[in-house]
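Re: that chain you flagged

S.,

Sorry for the slow reply, it's been a week of failed gels. I finally had a moment to sit down with the sequence you sent. For the record, here it is as I used it:
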Amino acid sequence: MVVETIDDVIRALDAIIDWAWTEKSRLGYFAALYRRVTQAVKAGIANRQFDNGPLMERLDVNFASRYLNAFEQFRSGQQTTLSWRIAFGASARWRPLVVEHLLAGINAHINLDLGVAAAVTAPGDQLSGLESDFNQINEVLAGLVGTVEKEIAEVSPLIGLLEKLSLRTDTVIINFSLEKARQFAWDHAVKMAPLPVPSLQAAILKLDPEVAELGRLVVSPPTLIKIQLFAIRVFESSNVRRVLDVLVRGKAGAAAAATGQ
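Prediction finished late last night. Pasting the structure tokens below so you have them in one place:
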């Protein structure tokens, strides 16, 4: 899928969300979160929140293109990266929580895609000029994940048990940390930025299985944790459309949808 601007990215995400809503597919969960991130980045560029707005838009487009291409490959039965195959494949399973679906997508997109996108956007010695805005976009993502986790209580009333069980989504639930993921992505961007295209592709192939293994732990954690999460899942809504409404528009949107407004 070819996108050239942030508005193109938003339209592409809208198409995925609309398709997922029609098909009642959990594949739309990450797209809904990602649309909110993209809207926030667009607003940040307009408000001069970033040091280099045009470069930020190129990073956003390169970053989003990796997800959009992976999505189209998966949906059409083509081979995609193992990291995305794990995340997308979980959509057919009942057991993973909404937050696990989101984190599986975040894992593939940050731990694999973000470093690659940064290296492609600012190759070689240009990368240092991207670091400040790179960190800023990650702050946007981290803030939204916290907000969305609170909103998910609308469709997952026992989600608060994650904290009580010491299983918050950025700790031992799957040993996933956004802060560590951001640093991991930057470290790999530094390694990849000087590489010619053939070597970059080889580096991606080498990194992918490592990221995929973490994705497996996200959607299928160890048995003890899986048992602890089961009670939360039993009371979590299986109405995909309702969950999508929450992820796209928050609690207000879900309430409106529930009342037919």
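What I noticed first: The chain has eleven helices and no strands.

Talk soon,
D.
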